[in-house]
From TrEMBL:
Disordered as annotated region, ranges: 238-260
Name of the protein: Lipoprotein
Keyword Metal-binding found: no
Any single Pfam family the record assigns to this protein: DUF5803
Biased composition (Acidic residues): 239-249
UniProt entry tagged with the keyword Transmembrane: yes
Assigned keywords, A-Z: Membrane, Transmembrane, Transmembrane helix
Organism: Haloarcula marismortui ATCC 33800
Superkingdom per UniProt: Archaea
InterPro entries registered for this protein in UniProt: DUF5803
Transmembrane segments: 202-224
Length: 260
């Protein structure tokens, strides 16, 4: 037993010395990853702007007199988890944009958070990129009670029930240069969720709906014709030929049997 305990302690010690993320503090994000290239909408007026692409999304957040900026997501169990950011940039209020390669801009990653270390106590906008897949985007509101903008990929849309979801409500939507843009003046909820569909999904859904309606109409007509055929056969056989007269007065039928 003692040997097992010593072996376990040795393994934990090795993990700690290797800087394993999440259990023993944080580690620096690879500078090469931070210096990757990406395009950002620095002219946005929203506190947070997310531009969704097919395999990634870019985010731009406004900061004021901050030395750090925390990035994280929330898993299915409600636990905070770090985000593997790349292409880190910072734009000062005078328009100067710096990267990790030409400034003290850096980032560290722990199990729960990715912390962007800014170049001192600064104001401006921080931008980063994150790899993604699927047709759903979800993110905590990293700026409390802020304004947000989400730009969907080209040839996609959101707003039709069952095919998409936009949360929270109270948003405005418009199409700009062929892309749907969703805006919130103020988000007080804890999370933004956008589930969208491809344009071809909409056509497919419409086609399947038309087929289902056509099958329903044909089925109803077939059932109606079968019912009418049964009625005709019963009439030809002399069944149910007598119909009750709706104006028949019970008093005209005479006394009950045995009292006549």
């Amino acid at each position: 037993m003692k040997r097992r305990h010593l072996l376990l302690v040795a393994v934990l010690a090795l993990v700690a010395l290797s800087g394993c993320t999440g259990f023993f503090g944080s580690e620096e994000v690879d500078p090469e990853r931070l210096n990757e290239n990406a395009s950002y909408d620095w002219n946005t007026s929203a506190d947070g702007t997310i531009v969704i692409e097919e395999s990634k999304y870019t985010a731009v957040y406004a900061v004021e007199n901050e030395t750090t900026f925390d990035v994280y997501t929330v898993d299915g169990l409600g636990r905070e988890r770090s985000v593997p950011i790349s292409a880190l940039r910072f734009r000062y209020e005078n328009g100067t944009v710096v990267s990790a390669a030409n400034s003290s801009l850096s980032a560290s990653e722990s199990r729960q958070r990715t912390t962007v270390n800014l170049s001192g106590n600064v104001s401006g906008k921080v931008g980063y990129s994150v790899a993604r897949t699927g047709k759903r985007f979800a993110s905590p509101t990293l700026i409390e009670d802020g304004s947000y903008t989400v730009v969907l990929p080209p040839n996609t849309g959101a707003g039709i029930p069952f095919l998409s979801r936009i949360s929270p409500g109270g948003y405005e939507s418009e199409t700009v240069d062929g892309q749907q843009v969703i805006r919130w003046d103020e988000v007080t909820s804890d999370q933004i969720v956008v589930r969208y569909y491809l344009d071809r999904d909409l056509w497919l859904f419409g086609g399947l709906s038309a087929i289902a309606i056509a099958i329903g109409v044909v089925g109803t007509l077939y059932y109606y014709r079968q019912l009418q055929a049964v009625i005709r056969r019963r009439q030809e056989a002399g069944i149910d030929l007598e119909e009750d007269d709706g104006d028949d007065d019970p008093r005209d039928r005479g006394p009950p049997p045995g009292m006549r």
